[in-house]
TrEMBL record:
Protein task: NAD-dependent protein deacetylase which modulates the activities of several enzymes which are inactive in their acetylated form.
Keywords, comma-separated and alphabetical: Acyltransferase, Cytoplasm, NAD, Transferase
SUPFAM superfamilies noted in UniProt: DHS-like NAD/FAD-binding domain
Name used for this protein in its record: NAD-dependent protein deacetylase
Compartments where located: Cytoplasm
UniProt binding sites for NAD(+): A20, Y31, R32, Q96, I98, D99, H114, T181, S182, N205, V223
Domain Deacetylase sirtuin-type: 1-229
Gene assigned in the entry: cobB
Active site: H114
Homology family: Belongs to the sirtuin family. Class U subfamily.
Amino acid sequence: MNNLNEAIKQAEHIVFLTGAGVSVASGIPDYRSKNGLYAGMNSPEYMLSHTCLVREPEKFYQFVTENMYYPDAMPNAIHTKMAELEAAKNVTIITQNIDGLHEKAGSKKVVNFHGSLYHCYCQKCGMSVAAEDYLKSDIHANCGGVIRPDVVLYEEAIPEDAIDQSLTAIRQADLIVIVGTSFRVSPFCNLTDYRNKKARIFAVNKERISLPYPFEMMENDAVKVFAEM
């Protein structure tokens, strides 16, 4: 714990790489754990695929609105501590999460690597649509087009600007902290391949992760770790 605190104090450019485990304490389930979103479901990857959106938009809409949105969820100690650090340091958060909690906590430099449920748009006219309106209907009142959340679905590519912003931050970082993720989903887990080789790397996760380079593992509840910083 003291090692991470000291590393944060000394660092000039910090990158936090965050995954689903960061938001579990805020009441948002992760995907693949025994109590996760996919538990007991048939073909959840299909439900969150580009093919489902195109072929069965009603089924896609029902799945997403019933299972993915937690508008009342509040940031926990991890989100708030990262936002506090950003106020004092050069901090970039690159997150796999699509729940908007980093922004809700006050963080400004957030790269939503897989998009955000709270950015929605009409596929026909391209107009932005408030998430509150999308939750009422996926048909755009203005043009009759089908609305979708701006998230990366299965079969879709990561947006180039998200990759570019992430690589720029990773290359500048002298400290990289991986939090709440098994760090096995590509291309997110490949970002550290582009790091400054002098950068220190920490991982804070309930389960030990494996990386092909030196790093410091903190096998602990990230909420507890960040609350005690």
